[in-house]
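User: Could you write out the 3D structure of this protein bound to zinc ion? I've included everything you need below.
Assistant: Certainly. Input first, then the structure.
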Amino acid sequence: MHGRPRKPLKPEEGAASFAKAANLRTLQAQLLHNHHHKIYIKDALDLSSKLLEINPEAYTAWNYRKLAVEHNLRSETDPDSIKAILSEELRLVESALRRNFKSYGAWHHRKWVLSKGNSSLDHEFRLLDQFQKADSRNFHAWNYRRFVAALKNVSEEEELKFTTDMINTNFSNYSAWHNRSVLLSHLLKQRVQGYFPREKVLTEEYDLVHQALFTDPDDQSGWFYHLWLLDQTVKPDAPLLVSSWPVHGSDLIISLGRNLDGRALSPFTSFHSDTGEFPLILYFNQAVEGVDSSTVTVESVFDKNADLMWRPLLTNNSGNAQVWVTYLKLPDVKDHSLKAYPVGVSIGHTQGIISSGGSHYSHPSQFEFTVSLQPIDSEHAERGPGTEMVVWKDGNFHTNKTILQDVSPTIDYFDQLRIEKDIEPTTSMWHAKTVANEIVLFRELLSEINCKIGKLTLARLLIGHDSIMSYNKTPYSYKRVYSQEVLELLSDLMKLDPSHSRYYKDEHSLVLMCQVTSNKELLLRHCWYYKESTSWSIHNSICLRLNNLSLSRIGSVENLLWVQMLDLSHNELRSIEGLEGMQLLSCLNLSNNKLSSFTALEPLRLLKSLKVLDISYNELGAHSIDTTRYLCSSPLSHTVGSDWDVDKCETDDVKVTNYWDVVLIFRGLHLTQLDIVGNAISDDKFKLLLAKVLPSLKWLDGEDVC
Amino acid sequence: MGELEMEKHVLYILSVEKKKDDFESVVMEHLRINGAYWGLTTLDLLGKLGTVDSDEVVSWILKCQHDSGGFGGNIGHDPHILYTLSAVQILALLNNLDVLDVDKLTNYISGLQNEDGSFSGDVWGEVDTRFSYIAICCLSILHRLDRINVEKAVNYIVSCKNLDGGFGCTPGGESHAGQIFCCVGALAITGSLHHVDKDLLGWWLCERQVKSGGLNGRPEKLPDVCYSWWVLSSLIMIDRVHWIDKEKLVRFILDCQDKENGGISDRPDDAVDVFHTYFGVAGLSLLEYPGLKAIDPAYALPVDIINRIFFGR
Ligand SMILES: [Zn+2]
């Protein structure tokens, strides 16, 4: 029941209710009797009308009337009588709707009657005008309006005018804005006369929605419409390649054992492989499909292009992904010559890479790099990441002037070598001008009134401005001028609107990560050496430390494809979505965060090189509700077959059914070191299960696994 | 504000079942099977399902089934997919799914799929994404999802996606929290959540929280306890539930309790009913309120039951 006050019935009301109930019960019983016995005489029909006028939700009564109408029409040939039969149904629906405007059964009955023909559609529009005036937000009426407009072939332009009228009468009508967005996006897509060029139309729409937003900034009706316009303005339609690993022009050195000559190697270009292959990663600005050996050509001595398998890096099975990877096989190296093998990659010269919105990749591009192989030192062949226990304490990290020399040139180098440097500007003047104009307007609004939507929109506009400007530049050559202001706006919002503070916090984290990773000086401050390189066999001992930044979410992964050792500890991460793009990661510290379920670790399943993982001091096992239960592949979402090998891990002590998520996440990993202490779930039985699921494990919580 | 009046709510639900004489009970008679699902699930979340005679319930449910395989809302009422879902959910709740003739039931449901992938609610052809959810949810519980064209079903749901990130009843229909739950739930069960723009929809959903802490179902509407379920479950399925103030919502739901006679209403001081009592308790379960069993956000059944169905051996 909705909107009925809670108060005990007075005795006389109770009696009346009792009498009403008795009457209704009799009607319902008689209706069912007539229905079951197919009695369609006038008295029986009248009785069903009476019932539906009291209780329009009695769906079986509507069904009964449909059967009766069909029965009575069958023996009727006189057009007037046919019309009379159908009109009576329309009358009944109208009267039922006056009782309950939200009755699904009544609205559907009306559609059913209309589909029989013989009814005046103009009458329906008049009725709708009446109803929609009385309740301008009723979504049944709006749906019905779309239905009647289609039947009557009313043009979308005309219906768009209706939404303009409704909005001008009262801009606080989300339903009208919604219908407008449906009609307009359709008109724009079809390039209907008067709705082209798109820019002209969108400019007019900005003007319309400003009136709503600036009249009452707290009214949500225009918020989402404005955001939709902003999206149209800021996001490029066509997919773009934003980064790759290896980068263009780099000279990659891959070792299969330890570094023999002791030369300091750059983290950006050296890579250890113990599987005899290395990844080639393409990172797009949006999810795309169709990356394969026909749309991407890789020329190398390693593999035939046609043999390369491109894989979307996804935690679902959609085939649409922002990041794609293929693995190139290394030849056996016998000589110690450090010969550089060239690799050429060209993308999009044949059509086929398409965004989920249906736009084609339209900027054919290519890049080159070389690969030299470090010979295997048989004596130390077994050494590499994961051969010695990693200890993530501050004392093990150090920095000095040489890190600048080691890393800085390669960042510059990395910088120049963005792939998209020769393309024509992807965004027209209109986009930049529109965003600039909006920024001015919202600054004005905020100078008059301190409102949350003003601040949030300004933050979004500034982010949009920076991303438009950066599309045509390399990441370090365009300085994101507004980052600091956006961070301040979001911090203000956390205070202004505390109920949604964690929404702003997540946005804050994304902007912060973008700021840190797309600025050379800032990024360098987070690069550290792990231990003395002599004592450890991983020649690439540079760790990116993004710890203690109070990050709640990860972003800008496209700038971090080179990272092999990452410290994200002491943040507020609830999710590591996006991390799957960092295919080179071998050591990862996620300790002291807010990860609350194993299914939240799903991105790790896609990290082939991961050896060392610290997830200690999180909230694993502490929550009854798992918020990534359906974002993770599992039998619950039919993304993992029921044949997964859960039984293999069953022991007398451990009911695997209770730990399905643990098995699902860890079974494909090849960890040698895991730290999991400090979670709600870390008892001995659980550790036994882990040892079973992770046979490669050498150290668990700092202790040897026997 | 105080605490959740667990015992009073149990008594209230048990009393509703017996009360058949007032007008509201008669008005609800045609959807008694929905009422049974709301009541029984609430009892289970409160840990009191044991007080119910499950044999009696099961035999009554079977009397609601028609030759077509579909269930009516009560004995003698026509079959409809809305009531078929409740029947399946109740039988799952009582661990009694094996009383069903699964092939007959799946034939009924798969027979309701249309050429465009959508589902009709019954033979009379009303189409709505609610029915897509129901078909997918039922068949998944029965391990028979392969009996429909899932790809087409998903594409139809995606065609109902709006520019605000939400979903409507049919293509072009306005976003509504109840409808969003159905569409997101169906996409979750079919492993298709990549069709959802989680940040956009998440923002729309979290903005459903109003000053009182309660949630509304559409912009500029009043808050209502039933949206605690629809908005919360959707936010959980897309991992954005932390974007609302959970404590304030808990307080709003608790404020809607009838602390004397049990039951929960749509808003504070309104009349209680079993529908809002279920949505209030289920909402609190999603908010991890202590002492309640956890509920699954997609199947709308307790997590232990869903885990038994999918991981039990
Ligand atoms: Zn409600």
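Confidence is low (pLDDT under 50) at residues 258-264, 378-383, 413-424, 534-539 of chain A.
User: Perfect, thank you.
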